[in-house]
Amino acid sequence: xxxxxxxxxxxxxxxxxxxxxxxxxxxxxxxxxxxxxxxxxxxxxxxxxxxxxxxxxxxxxxxxxxxxxxxxxxxxxxxxxxxxxxxxxxxxxxxxxxxxxxxxxxxxxxxxxxxxxxxxxxxxxxxxxxxxxxxxxxxxxxxxxxxxxxxxxxxxxxxxxxxxxxxxxxxxxxxxxxxxxxxxxxxxxxxxxxxxxxxxxxxxxxxxxxxxxxxxxxxxxxxxxxxxxxxxxxxxxxxxxxxxxxxxxxxxxxxxxxxxxxxxxxxxxxxxxxxxxxxxxxxxxxxxxxxxxxxxxxxxxxxxxxxxxxxxxxxx
Length: 316
Ligand SMILES: NC(=O)c1ccc[n+]([C@@H]2O[C@H](COP(=O)([O-])OP(=O)(O)OC[C@H]3O[C@@H](n4cnc5c(N)ncnc54)[C@H](O)[C@@H]3O)[C@@H](O)[C@H]2O)c1
Fold this sequence. Notes:
single chain, alpha/beta, Rossmann fold, UDP-galactose 4-epimerase, domain 1, 2 domains, globular, binds nicotinamide-adenine-dinucleotide
């Protein structure tokens, strides 16, 4: 792999992936419409000559997207997506356009040269983990929001290009990913939101009773997983999970972040019908196929995100 195009490269996971690729000496192109990403996420690399081009455009803009294939990338990491579950329930058309139509555009741009595609899936496509154990790639799917449905639809469409055209495709399904640069509003992750509220002396809000669990993956572990999958021929045609392999109830996460129970408040869930009560990853396939396992436990990850927030000027 010498040349990589990252869609959604100005977003949270995207900017960490760009950093990893540049560190590995790979030439990188980025496309992002800045809907949820920002230019500042790429500031650290602005003088890196290996960051060949950053195009602020929508993947629905076909001519602009196709222009990024002029230099013939060896691989496309397709991360651009509408990621907000709540917003997807309010406006499913937006999820459809960015996540399905957008993925179709990326697939069509990859098709002429059979450009390798690493498709970013998500654990949110899975049905709840049962008490018997963790979620493997064979676990039943149950998309409970237009976000999950559109991500699953994108996967199925991409799989048809793998079978129908021989497009080299790798589908990665990371579990909930957190770390520095993640937004701390509703478009961000729960760890970021809790840590920022704690630092600001505000209340931490839990939707519902807080017994719902998440398997939380630190972002650099996530990116290492994507990189290893992209570099392994055995991963082609595969769906692969990555997570910590441990789940935590949201109420326990809140207590880990904030030692004052009076600052933890329970509020009515926005969309209980789309909640997945238990998410726990079985990453044994990633371990055996890619020799990957997570390196950062939750306590360390929380410390890293806290330190990052404290280093940001707006916290004073
Ligand atoms: N954060 C998680 O917990 C998590 C877990 C599993 C999978 N994912 C997937 O990882 C990917 C990245 O997620 P993230 O958490 O970094 O979110 P993010 O919102 O920070 O990143 C997505 C980026 O895509 C851009 N984008 C959105 N629609 C676009 C469009 N139509 N054209 C061009 N750019 C567009 C956004 O501006 C943003 O920068 C997504 O595909 C998401 O579904 C995220």
